[in-house]
Design a protein that fits this description.
CATH class of one domain: Alpha Beta
Oligomer: single chain
InterPro entries: AAA+_ATPase (IPR003593), ABC_transporter-like_ATP-bd (IPR003439), ABC_Transporter_VariousFunc (IPR051782), P-loop_NTPase (IPR027417)
Number of strands: 13
Strand order of the largest sheet: 5-6-7-3-8-9
Radius of gyration: 20 Å
Strand content: 25-35%
Order of helices and strands: EEEHEEHHHEHEEEEHEEHE
GO molecular function, one term: ATP binding
Protein name: ATP-binding cassette domain-containing protein
Structural class: alpha/beta
Shape: globular
Keywords: ATP-binding, Nucleotide-binding, Transport
């Protein structure tokens, strides 16, 4: 069972006498959580994400309960001697997949992100946007327990940005955790379970991301077998769930997560019937 990732009194500086980039950071990331991290440039957001991903080790403090983690860095190094498909297949085997499973997952994610046409293209010849799609794909190959995204939407086209949002919803719906930084305050608006600001080398929890709107939501009315409770994955995704009668529920979900919730309902066993779906503006 996946454990809660915890940072206790964590600090990080570079060099024995270098200034502290972060200090006294306490943070818990439970399974299934979606966490947004904010802050101005140079405040230590990327350092925090590298600590969460296990790329950097803390100078002081403790990190415990580390899950199987994948990371999309702010800058992806494209000058590697692989084609896109070969690189992803190699990374998949590093993550523990068989070569066949890794190649299949590589193809699926390149297709989902709109980069299937570049599967045989050397990484060094990819555009910045296509390189970013490969960076996102490598992090999603093996269904990580913790997904860490550092400005991962930057450089993606509209369809790929939406696909990454769906992938985030899929990860959290399946019990994985996601921590992300993004410069757009409307990114996944209304969806995060917690938001933090990095300021003056420390971490401050916010009830809502600074300047972020509540974001569009979708109201979904569903009907299932009398006496049946909602599937656990639906409960994790929904912002609210109200029982309106035996086996009947009115759900509210962030628009970015609605596709995943509907798919979860329609593939549930026993099956659930979607009675109605309509858009809302702002929280219910």
């Amino acid at each position: 069972m996946q454990r809660e990732l915890r940072l206790d009194g964590v600090g990080r500086r570079y060099g024995l006498r270098g200034p502290w980039v972060l200090r006294g950071v306490d943070l818990s990331v439970p399974p299934g959580a979606l966490v947004r991290v904010e802050g101005t440039n140079g405040t230590g957001k990327s350092t925090l994400l590298r600590l969460l991903a296990g790329i950097d080790a803390p100078t002081e403090g403790r990190v415990t309960g580390r899950p199987r983690t994948a990371y999309v860095p702010e800058r992806f190094p494209p000058a590697l001697p692989f084609t896109a498909a070969a690189y992803l297949t190699h990374l998949g085997t590093v993550h523990g997949l068989s070569r066949r499973a890794a190649a299949r997952a590589a193809g699926q994610w390149l297709d989902r992100l709109g980069a299937a046409g570049y599967a045989s293209t050397p990484l060094a010849r990819l555009s910045k946007g296509s390189s970013q799609k490969v960076a996102v794909a490598q992090a999603l190959l093996a269904e990580p327990e913790l997904l860490v995204l550092d400005e991962a939407w930057t450089g993606l086209d509209t369809d790929a940005r939406a696909e990454l949002e769906r992938a985030v919803a899929e990860r959290t719906a399946s019990g994985g955790a996601v921590v992300f930084v993004d410069h757009d305050p409307s990114r996944l608006a209304g969806a995060p379970d917690a938001a933090y600001t990095v300021r003056d080398g420390t971490l401050h929890r916010r009830t809502e991301p600074a300047g972020a709107p509540a974001g569009p939501r979708v109201a979904i009315r569903v009907r299932g077998p009398a006496g049946a409770g909602l599937p656990a994955d639906v409960v994790r995704i929904a912002a609210s769930a109200e029982e309106s009668g035996p086996g009947r529920y009115d759900l509210t979900v962030p628009a970015s997560h609605s596709d995943v919730l509907l798919r979860t309902l329609l593939t549930a066993r026993p099956p659930w019937h979607v009675v109605s779906v309509h858009a809302q503006e702002g929280p219910r």
